[in-house]
Amino acid sequence: MGEKRRSAVRGGSHRGPTRALLHERVKELDCIYGIARVAARWNTPFEQDLQDIVELLPAGWQHPEAATARVTMDGREYVAPGFSPGAQRLEAQVTVNGERRGIVEVFYGEPMPPEDEGPFLREESRLIDAVAHLLGLLLERRDAAQARAVIEEGLQQADRLATIGLLAAGVAHELNEPLSSILGFAQLLKRSHGLPPQDEQDVAKIVSGALNARDVVRKLLLFARRAPTTKTAIDLEADVVEDVLSLFEDRCAKDGVEVVRAFGGDIPRIAADAAQLKQVLVNLVVNALQAMPRGGTLTVSTMAGKDRVSLVVEDTGVGMTQDVLSKVFLPFYTTKGPGQGTGLGLAVVHGIVTAHEGTVRVVSRVGRGSRFEVELPMGGEHHDVATR
Question: Is residue 225 a contact partner of residue 165, using CB atoms and an 8 Å limit?
Fold first, then answer.
């Protein structure tokens, strides 16, 4: 991990093992030991580790009073106190898995007499290589920790959704029968002759409320993946995307939203339930439009990978915070005011996509918009299979 390029020109002759040289080796060992101790810490931020390391570097060189150091990692600089780059420099590249991620540099702020390699000792060249190697290990550990955190969060989210799905399925099952009875008797009563006007209005409210409740139950079942899924070979663009977008053309024009179609072309047919995928796209488009109250751009894209087909819905709306992103697929979670939504739209999206053995991901930035990407497995054969 310590590929290096040196700007110094080798010169001078190698000196014998004098007391002064032994003193230099001790300084170098102290420097690398201090850096190793910093790299071994687990409870400090990565940025703090880099800053502490760069401040340890000057003391390890032959002329510490004139030495200064800089570490650049992933485009961000960390410098020693009083840093000022000089013409005499020794550097080493920091690499992780063959990829250059940064550079460590030591400068002399004033001209120094020639040594083994310009003004630097041969051992100092080895020292900076060792520092670059340690920085690479530190960066590799940081990357692994971040990847592990993402995986753990994903597993926790999946566990939460599975638990809520079981609860939702149970609740929906218990509500179905009484709701059917309420709706049936209310509709019979509504057909009765001679009801007073106030009673007719009250019965109409019962029917409306029961229908709304039945719709919530249906969405809960979709989220819990208990609703029947009939898969056939469909054209994602023609059978789903175009049909859904045609429903929103007038609303988008009225709301000042430009609709952009970015189709990948030659998208293979997939085995899916067209009606349920339309529900997915409707929910995503409605979510996008609600995020753009002052207009904007709605982009719907399709693309094909090696064994997956992607459907992407992107908006230029208000975006979401990290806290909202962590809860966005939970049922009944909504940032809207009372009476403005059930909080089931994106939960239904997650349930339908999962039932199709696909995945849904979201990326969002406050003030910049959101991007939902649905990935579905390919499959062009005709299935007509009802699954539960």
Answer: yes
